[in-house]
Amino acid sequence: MRTRVVGIAAGVVSWVGLALAVLLVVHVVLTVGGANPGNPITSTVKELAEPVALAFKDLFSPEDAKLRVIVNFGLAALFWLAVRAIVLKLVRRLN
Asked: In principle, which of 6, 22, 35, 81 could form an S-S bond with 42, CB 3.0–4.6 Å?
């Protein structure tokens, strides 16, 4: 029973961490690709990505807006992948 619960928890942590990182990367791609900011997909992705970026969203402030998004939201995506890996390791140790 314990092994199954740990497996389910690991799966949830894995998918959530990956989803957060992918959301941030999609925001970067849409921004750098010049997607229409008025488009509902672009605006929704931006609205969802900003709180997920935590304090990274304005960590660096280069003059170029696209570079700012690449660096800050890219770092946030790497952060979530690192958190995912650490939490997965801890959860799997419970087994």
From this structure: 35
